[in-house]
Amino acid sequence: MFPELRMRRLRRGEGIRALVRETMLSTDDLVYPLFVVHGRGRREPIGPMPGQFRLSVDQLVEEVQEAYELGIKGVLLFGVPRRKDELGSEAYSDDGIVQRATRALKEALPELVVMADVCLCGYTTHGHCGVVVDGRVDNDRTLELIARTALSLAGSGADVVAPSGMMDGQVRAIRKALDEEGFTDVAIMAYSAKYASCFYGPFREAAGSAPKFGDRRSYQMDPPNVREALLEMELDIREGADIVMVKPALAYLDVIRAAKERFLRPLAAYNVSGEYAMVKAAGRLGWMDEEGAMMEVLLGIKRAGADIILTYFAKDAARMLGRAA
Length: 325
Ligand code: PBG
Hints:
TIM Barrel, 325 residues, alpha/beta, 8-stranded parallel β-barrel
């Protein structure tokens, strides 16, 4: 007890603070999510996500090369299709935008880990994550399309497929399809505990994927629930998920911690678009130190238990980590 024990002794200088530091953020932890569009030379700023762009494949390769040189080992791709339709057919077309982007990235950077989001919402006219029948999202009819999407992405060279549609049985459907076609080494990162969150707002503007009617609460999780999140993760692991995810991250740090304590699979957390937008907006208004807030947010997600952090801050954080090293 004080005065014999003085907590401030180990905070006196950067050297001693570094020695007793419990959590370390590294570029190895970060995955950079990106939006790909058709065309050439396109680099369209995303309004509510300053510093993020919808990129055509040529621009994407340059952007990812830069990130890779900063030490980022993985990217997560989202596509903006040429045309949307009722069944989201570009999602599972071998000529789809993410399929093209994947081939280009694997050719330019063979060691890069290419993760591809597997969902229909960006590709459907109604903006829902599955097949709509009588105004409702039909779980079982969606599974076949999701499996086809994952197969097509694996065929294009994706290392990891990441189903984000919150359909029951989607991980099993994907694992089965991949294994039957010989893609036994393609991993599944399941968005297992994905909550129905308003923090996806900026993303939906970027991907043009907002639902045209209703909302996603019949498939995404109800924010108050944590036991249900653990069950979702347990089921996905049993169905064959290699990595499980909690999303969003900041309002769900307790879910990350609970998952970390319970499961032996690598745990990912998605620092989503709205979380990025909040920090950027406050930084721009001069209300908060943006870089400091960014690092504190990422560190908090890591401390809560995330092994992998998906974040639009990936490049900014890698730059800061490089400077500190
Ligand atoms: C697609 C998907 C979404 C996000 C990732 N995959 C949006 C949604 O569910 O509406 C959100 C990511 C973010 O906000 O950064 N299902």
